[in-house]
Design a protein that fits this description.
The complex is a heterodimer of chains A (about 270) and B (about 325).
Chain A: H1 2-33, H2 52-55, H3 64-94, H4 100-112, H5 115-129, H6 137-161, H7 166-173, H8 178-207, H9 210-215, H10 222-232, H11 236-267
Chain B: H1 3-16, H2 20-63, E1 65-68, E2 72-75, H3 80-121, H4 126-134, H5 141-151, H6 157-164, H7 167-173, H8 187-211, H9 215-223, H10 228-257, H11 260-264, H12 273-282, H13 288-313
Antiparallel strand pairs in B: 1-2
Keywords (chain A): Cell membrane, Membrane, Transmembrane, Transmembrane helix, Transport
Membrane topology (chain A): Multi-pass membrane protein
Family (chain A): Belongs to the binding-protein-dependent transport system permease family. CysTW subfamily.
């Protein structure tokens, strides 16, 4: 009976734990398979432990160009999308203007459209206006900025909405000019939201495949390289890069969360 | 400025109890305030209009072109392209809808308990657990999808366990897999990969909606002798409904167009409409107008389904 009661009390926790397991297991498999030494070209089955892939993470330089292209595009797209999206978020939260409904739907639709639709529509635009030669770095960058802006807007908007407007009023009461109020009060308070938006943009751009494939022409980004390599066999080096990305993310979460967690546990 | 206008301005300033110079400065500030939002909006919104709205027109015009790869395509307003693509690929269209619907249902079934647990039971672990839900995003999703090939491999322990529990014959009996001792290259493995990839999109909006619910409402439900299940059904679920609508849409819409899971975890019998579009637009298919026509069908189809669903669910607050 005690067992049954315990189970009933914790059933939701058990289910949640199993779902977390489902969500996180592939990440562990990615890390685990990075230490594999496959005998053939397919790194799907575990065979032998080795550090070979970690010692040579770019696979003799094969991965250098796709990784650099992805990083370059992700950095530029993040920069432009964060600036454009932050400006829009300020306009929406802090100002009144005509055409709010139109602005909201233009921002919402890119998040609600299937990726393949965005990719093919952009490809049609580029082919009809500029021709095939336009496809490459420029067209990928344009596409990535396009789909990142909306995510920046919602992230910065929620931070702005959660801010106390009294703080800005107080600054004005203390004779700060609008410019001073913005840079000394508003911006520092919104900065974490802008930072989160930039991180999200970077992740979205770096990882994007479908829209990129449609607009890439002959350029090959890191995800596109993986896609092409699936048939030929993915080297364990790809898992090394995947593992490094995961480690950096988890370290980021730890840096952001552990101090807060320690603070609350001391308070208890 | 003419003399009468100047006189008017002076009268206005006198009435407001200020000087003409102050009145002018005030008007300048107000004018600047009125244009500022448009200055802030313009660059981003123009970018989205040019590279998101205008391309919609481009794809429609491309979808009614005729020609071939060698001689090029010309706009001939051949609407029959739509009939052609439907009769040639309706099977793949229907299959995509089936897969994405199954994916959405399974995601919802998994997301509800997960979001509920994090929102109401996790206490100070809340943020950390939400971070773990999105953490997988930060490793390339193609690599993570490939990991399922290892997990679901024929001689892996997952398939062995499913064999022992007699789940594999059940799956093949339902037509989700094709044999009793293998699950890869089947609708089962494809939908499994899709559920895995889209689950965070379902969880996030549901969690956001649940987190806003006052936990005292649950206590009130219990005080009124409602069972845990009744409290969930009568209190939590209706209050979380906007999040549920948002989450299922954010799952269903990208899932319809997805072809990465179908290609990486599926086989020849799991070809979806995204693959057909990909092949026509940039691959070996080589008929760009056909690819464009399929995209237009997909675009209009998802839009109609989305609007009907929002209307039925009776909520407009989806973001």
């Amino acid at each position: 009976m005690a067992v049954v009661n315990w189970f009933r009390k914790h059933v939701i926790a058990i289910v949640a734990f199993l779902i977390f397991f489902f969500l996180l297991v592939p990440n562990f498999v990615v890390v685990w398979m990075s230490f594999n030494k496959p005998s053939g070209k397919y790194n799907v089955k575990w065979e032998k432990f080795s550090f070979d892939a970690w010692k040579n993470p770019l696979d003799d330089g094969i991965l250098h160009d796709p990784l650099m292209l992805s990083l370059e595009i992700a950095l530029l797209a993040t920069l432009v999308a964060t600036v454009l999206g932050t400006m829009i978020a300020f306009a929406i939260v802090r100002h009144s203007f005509k055409g709010r409904g139109f602005v909201n739907s233009v921002l919402f639709l890119p998040m609600a459209a299937p990726e393949i639709v965005m990719g093919t529509t952009l490809l049609a635009l580029f082919l009809n206006t500029f021709g095939v030669s336009f496809l490459g770095f420029k067209s990928i960058l344009i596409a990535h900025i396009m789909f990142c802006v909306s995510y920046v807007v919602i992230t910065v908007k929620s931070r702005l909405n959660g801010m106390d407007p009294m703080l800005e009023k107080a600054a004005q009461d203390l004779y700060a000019t609008p410019w001073q109020t913005f840079w000394r009060v508003t911006f520092p308070l919104v900065a974490p939201g802008i930072g989160a938006a930039a991180l999200l943009s970077f992740a979205l751009s770096f990882d994007d495949f479908i829209i990129t494939e449609m607009t890439a022409g002959n350029s090959v980004t890191f995800p596109y390289w993986i896609w092409n390599a699936v048939q030929k066999g993915i080297p364990p080096q790809v898992n090394v890069i995947g593992s490094l990305m995961l480690i950096i993310t988890l370290a980021g979460i730890a840096v952001a969360e552990v101090p807060k967690w320690l603070k609350t546990s001391k308070a208890h | 400025m003419s003399a009468p206008a100047l006189a008017d301005e002076a009268a206005e300033a006198m009435a407001a109890g200020t000087t003409v110079a102050e009145l002018r400065a005030d008007k300048r500030v107000r004018r600047r305030r009125a244009t500022l939002p448009y200055v802030l909006l313009a660059p981003g919104i123009i970018w989205l209009v040019v590279f998101f709205i205008v391309p919609m027109w481009s794809i429609v015009s491309t979808s009614v072109e005729t020609g071939d790869m060698d001689t090029g395509f010309v706009l001939s307003w051949r609407w029959a392209n739509f009939g052609d693509v439907w009769s040639q690929w309706h099977q793949q269209i229907i299959r995509s809808l089936e897969y994405s619907l199954m994916c959405t249902v399974f995601c919802l079934v998994l997301a509800l308990p997960l979001a509920y647990f994090i929102a109401f039971k996790a206490g100070r672990w809340k943020n950390l657990l939400m971070a773990l839900v999105v953490a997988p995003f930060f490793t390339s999703y193609l690599i993570r999808t490939l990991a399922w090939k290892t997990i679901l491999a024929d001689d892996g322990w997952v398939v062995h366990a499913m064999n022992t529990l007699h789940i594999t014959p059940l799956l093949s009996g339902m037509g989700w897999t094709y044999s009793d001792n293998s699950v890869l290259q089947t609708p089962f493995s494809v939908v499994c990969g899709m559920v895995y990839n889209f689950l965070p999109f379902t969880v996030l909006p549901i969690y956001t909606a649940m987190e806003k619910i006052d936990p005292r409402l649950h206590e009130a439900g219990q005080d009124l002798y409602a069972s845990a299940w009744a409290t969930f059904r009568k209190v939590t679920f209706p209050l979380a409904l906007p999040g549920i609508v948002g989450g299922t849409l954010l799952t269903f819409i990208p899932a319809v167009g997805d072809y990465t899971n179908a290609v990486m975890l599926g086989g020849p019998k799991t070809k979806v409409i995204g693959t057909v579009i990909e092949q026509q637009m940039i691959g070996t298919g080589g008929n760009i107008p056909y690819g464009a026509a399929l995209s237009v069908l997909l675009m209009v189809g998802t839009l109609v389904i989305t609007l009907a669903y929002i209307k039925k669910a009776g909520t407009e607050e989806i973001v």
